[in-house]
Design goal:
This protein is mainly β. The chain is built from no helices and 11 strands. Strand 5 and strand 6 form a beta hairpin. The mean pLDDT is 95.
Length: 124
């Protein structure tokens, strides 16, 4: 099991930017799929972006062109660069991982390892 710790959340005005980080407790050189999810109050958890250790990535339609996911295996860190933020991006953001596999999915049930989350608040 991999422990994940997110950081980088905060409050920002509409059209602003934030960069989230998620550091893993173990090396992730081997096959791994990692993803960012978010959950707003009263809403279901939704997938935002995913990347695997081969470098492939996939985004939710709502963030395409605004968010960029990247994985630095040497630093054991997953990133989410968020730009042109909107109030509807306000949510708790979680990173998730599944080691030993390479796949691209925004289905949360496929990821066994989760961080505690970092809050992102975008004001208009």
């Amino acid at each position: 099991q991999v422990q994940l710790v997110e950081s980088g959340g905060g409050s920002v005005q509409s059209e602003g930017s934030l960069k989230l980080s998620c550091t893993a407790s173990t090396d992730i050189y081997s096959s791994v799929s990692m993803a960012w999810f978010r959950q707003a109050p009263g809403k279901e958890r939704e997938g935002v972006a995913t990347v695997d250790s081969s470098g492939r990535s996939k985004y939710a339609d709502s963030v395409k062109g605004r968010f960029t996911i990247s994985l630095d295996a040497a630093k054991r860190t997953l990133y989410l660069q968020m730009s042109s933020l909107k109030p509807e991006d306000t949510a708790m953001y979680y990173c998730a991982a599944k080691t030993g596999w390479q796949f691209l999915s925004l289905n949360p049930v496929l990821y066994p390892d989760w961080g505690q989350g970092t809050q992102v608040t975008v004001s208009s």
